[in-house]
Structures are given as structure tokens and as C-alpha cells.
Amino acid sequence: MPKSRRAARVALLVVGGAILAAAVYIMVRRIGLNPELDFGAGAYYYADIPEFEKKLDWDTYQAQLPFWVYVVLFLAWGALMYWVWTRMEKHTKPKHMEKLNHPAILVVDMLNDFVTGAIGCDRARAIVPATARLLAAAREKGVPVIYCNDAHLPGIDRELQIWGDHAIVGTPGAEVIPELTPQPCDFVVPKRRYSGFFQTDLDILLKELGVKTVIITGLHTHMCCRHTSADAYCLGYDVVAAKEATNSFTEEDYLGGLAYLKTCYGADAYSNDELIAAF
Known about the structure:
alpha/beta, Rossmann fold, elongated, 2 domains, 12 helices, 6-stranded parallel beta sheet
């Protein structure tokens, strides 16, 4: 939870507690829960009343207000505190989270060949738990999860000339890793180029889902994530990067990729906790 929101909640609780204490004190005095009270007469011993209360004519003042008035005031106070709490929750949200308007998560190339196979690496494996957690939270909140998966034709696709055979259609290497297996509510978009948008139906899918913001996850921030973000930006989507659920072959590539997304597409990178809180 952001520090500003935590401080605001503490302040609200302190103020609310003070008001509650005052209300209880008034009600205690009103109904006479005082060992020195003359219950039969319904009045306090004058000698035991503090001087400031004598000046305020406490008993006369209270006698003018029936007990039910205090109940109504207490309920009104509770309603006011609830209203203040909900308004505070709305207005203390980090401004950057306002971008997450109708979001969807794009899972880029979290395939066997990218994680453990032909072009796999330790850094790809490192983001699996964080990615799984983010996707589970998205599904729970009704945020669409869309897999953008390399699905290459052997001996045809140009990328294979650079990276060698990987994610060949119909092979185990082109399947999503078991830890992130797509669920029935998810969507899968095959692609033959770096970008998840290039000559695929990703754009029409997002539009029909009412998506305004894409959250980029997967591999690699300086390649497929970068090209997918470029097309998303050009097509009018807001772009956000999940910094715990993206990676690259090296730290330099990873950070450079995130910096490029920020510079060129205004794509801020956020932690899982920040994203989940904004769903």
C-alpha cells in the first residue's frame, strides 16, 4: 500500500477514534454511568461536577436532548466516516494507475523453447512464479489474459534465419510452459513475427473485449515485448510493463528494453502489487 494512502487511513482512524471517544463520553454522562450519580433524581452531585462543566451548565444542556438524538448522531457519524473512507480510497490511488482503464494482460512467448528449450535461459525461468501470480490475480478480477505465442513455419519464417529453429508449429517447444498453461477463460493468438499484432487478430480481439490498456509480460523486453508495445501504442492502446513478469537474456537488455518502452511509448513499469491493486 502506498505511504500516502496508509498515512491517510491512520489519520482517519485517529480522528474517527477521537470522535467516537467523545461520543461515548457524552453518552456515558447522558445515561448516568457514574458512581456518584443520583439515579433516582437523574442528576449529578453538584460538588463532583468540574468547574468548566458548571459554567457550561452540562446537565441543563443534556436535558434538552433525548437519548435517541445521540443514537442518530452516532449513526450519522458512522455514515460520514464510511463516505470519507471511500472518497479517500478513490483519490489516494497513484495517478499512474489511472491508465489501467479496461486492461488486458499480454503474455509474450512464455513457451517451452523460450524458457527451457532451444533459446531458453535462467532469466526466463526466474520470472515464472511472478507471472503465474499476476495471471491468477488478473483472472480473479476479470482482466483478460491473452497469450501471444510464436508459432513458426519451419524453413519459411524469416526469424528462424536469425534465431534458428524455435517454437515450430505443432512441436512441444511452441507450447506454453506448464506453469502458465492457458485457462478456458484465456485467449491464444499465434504470431510469426516479433510483434503480437503483426498480421494477427490481436487488435480486433482487444477491441471487442473493450480493452484500453495492455500490460506487457513475458520475453524479451528488448525484442518481442518491444515490438508488441510499439504496435499497441500505434493502434491507440496505453502500454504498461510488468517489471517482475518480464525479462531478457541479460540485465542490460532487460533494463534497456524497459527504458525504451518508457521513452518511446510512455510505458511505465510496475510491480505485481501495484498492478494487482489497480485491477
